[in-house]
Amino acid sequence: MNRKRGLIKVFIIIFAVICIAVGVYLFFSNKDKTPQFKTEKVTKGNISATVTATGTLSAVTTVAVGTQVSGTIKEIYVDYNSPVKKGQLIALIDPDTFQAQVNQARANLNLAKANLKKSEVSLQDAERNFNRYKTLIEKELIARSEFDTAQTNLDSAKAQVEASKAQVLQAEAALKAAEINLDHTRIVSPVDGVVISRSVDVGQTVAASFQTPTLFSIAKDLTKMQVVASIVEADIGMVKNGQSVEFTVDAHRETVFKGKVSEVRIAPITVQNVVTYEVIILVDNLEHKLKPGMTANVSIIVDSKDDVLKIPNSALRFRMPEALLQKDKTQPQREQKGRAGTSVWILKDAKPKRIPIKTGISDGQFTEIVSGEIKEGDEVIIEAISKSTPKQGQQSGAPPRLF
Predict the structure, then answer these.
(1) Which of 196, 201, 282, 290 could bond 262 through an S-S bridge, CB–CB 3.0 to 4.6 Å?
(2) Taking the CB of residue 66, how many other CB atoms lie within 10 A of it?
(3) 95 with 72: CB under 8 angstroms?
(4) Does any domain span residue 259?
């Protein structure tokens, strides 16, 4: 019996100790709920406002080489990446048919010239007859009707000569056209450059009936390229000619390429109710790292300032918790609840204080401070951290472990 009573006393003592421990823990944990703040210092430095977009690289001048005549590709003298010179023969369409047309046109021209000579001889004969009949009519040796016939024959001979001359001109034009078509069977490069695409093979038939088919695409100069970037309508008003540009490509992520805005096109492009405008950016490519078709991640520098006060954007987004605002009676409530983006909170004498400010340009991470009672080195609050906040991996509200 005494042993049982002793065990009961032990359990009572243990229970009392647990209750006291829990009470002490709760007391000190509640006491230690004073919030702490994560801060960053106000600094001075350079800041640039940018407009970001994506674009596609291309050669400044790309020439599509086609054909004006239809036929079968007989020879191809260049391939992808082949350097070419202006006037260089790059392909040949089978010329046999066109050579035959030239020969026929030349024969027609010779026939027309022969007919012209025949007409001129007939004219000379008509002139002699007319002069003879003219002498006889003056002496009244022939009838008037015979003289009129001679006059008619002369006029007819003159008209025939003019018609023969016109036929010669027509035959010459037909020969010229046939020679031009024959010359067009030789596909030559119109510029100095590099072949970036080839669309035909030997033996393939090309037809130039309604539109000129593209046989080759030649980039004129790959040492100078352009980025065609799409800028949304909300940002296009800030983009101007001559602004500096930085961009990267996935093939060379460690390299930042530089360029300049050369043209802001005013023609809108609407896709799924989103309006964008094309901006042309010129860039040097002396090392030939950039290739046509690459995607560029573009940052257009629309404004830049040096040695200005700047704060992290997270300080502008910070809002003092409502519970702390109610405890802080040092400022009127209307001042404590200022609009986001027009004020920041700083730690002054270990207490948070709201400071109204006027902001300037932003680079997405930092924002310029134009005016306000804030100086370099001040600690701006970017986050409120409560000591009662459970650590990662610990469930909120879990009882303390005593054993």
Answers:
(1) 282
(2) 15
(3) no
(4) yes
- Edge-first strand order for the sheet with 214-219 is 62-66, 214-219, 193-198, 83-84
Give residue-wise pLDDT tens across range 206-236.
Answer: 987 766 688 999 999 899 999 999 999 999 9
Q: What is the pLDDT of residue 142?
A: 80
Question: Do 226 and 287 share a domain, yes or no?
Answer: yes
**Number of domains within the chain:** 2
CA-to-CA separations, 218 to 86, 189, 286, 294, 390, in angstroms, rounded: 11, 8, 18, 17, 65
Q: Please, are residues 99 and 71 in contact by the beta-carbon 8 Å criterion?
A: no
Domain-terminating residue out of 305, 322, 339 = 305
Shared domain check, 225 and 162: no
User: Which pTM was predicted?
Assistant: 0.65
Q: Structural domain of residue 254, as residue ranges?
A: 50-60+219-305
pLDDT for 336: 41
From the list 201, 203, 212, 226, the residue with the least C-alpha distance to 65 is 212
Distance CA 227, CA 281 (A): 5
Which residues, at least 6 apart from 98, have a Cβ–Cβ distance to it below 8 Å?
Answer: 69, 71, 178, 181, 182, 185
Lowest mean pLDDT among 28-32, 72-76, 105-109, 149-153: 28-32
pLDDT at residue 194 tops 90: yes
Alpha-carbon distances of 251 from 257, 281, 296, 400, rounded to whole Å: 12, 19, 10, 54
Tokens coding 256: 């930042």
What is the DSSP annotation of 140-204? T-S-HHHHHHHHHHHHHHHHHHHHHHHHHHHHHHHHHHHHHHHHTTEEE-SSSEEEEEE---TT-
Residues contacting 92, CB < 8 A, separation 6+? 73, 74, 75, 76, 77, 185, 186, 187
pLDDT of 264-301, one tens digit each? Answer: 999 999 999 999 999 999 999 999 999 999 999 999 99
> Three-state DSSP class for 290?
coil
The owner of tokens 């030649």 is 218
Task: Assign residue 247 the CATH number of its domain.
Answer: 2.40.30.170
In a domain, 364, yes or no: no
